[in-house]
Specification:
This protein is mainly beta. 0% of the residues lie in helices and 56% in strands.
Length: 119
């Protein structure tokens, strides 16, 4: 079982920055990939950024060049640095961890953290 706790959300003006953190209850070396998703009311959850156990990263086109995902292995934490925020970035942001054990894929989610960008 992996527990994920997000923090760092809040209210910011357009053009500002926020840094989200996701603390895992296990060593993130054991986690195959960690993702940040976001969701707004009435819409499907959207994949924002991914970082693999090997350190490879990937981003949604809408956030490329503005968001950076990184990992702090010593603290078992993944961060999402969000710069040049836009009102359309407003959403609940969720941390997700994917752990593959033999042939089984385990999927874990945090509770979410609200990000609100005012215009």
């Amino acid at each position: 079982q992996v527990q994920l706790v997000e923090s760092g959300g809040g209210l910011v003006q357009a053009g500002g920055s926020l840094r989200l953190s996701c603390a895992a209850s296990v060593s993130i070396f054991s986690i195959n990939a960690m993702h940040w998703f976001r969701q707004t009311p009435g819409k499907q959850r959207e994949l924002v950024a991914t970082i693999t156990s090997g350190g490879s990263t990937n981003y949604a086109d809408s956030v490329k060049g503005r968001f950076t995902i990184s990992r702090d292995n010593a603290k078992n934490t993944v961060h999402l640095q969000m710069n040049s925020l836009k009102p359309e970035d407003t959403a609940v942001y969720y941390c997700n961890a994917v752990l593959k054990v033999l042939a089984t894929v385990h999927d874990y989610w945090g509770q979410g953290t609200q990000v609100t960008v005012s215009s």
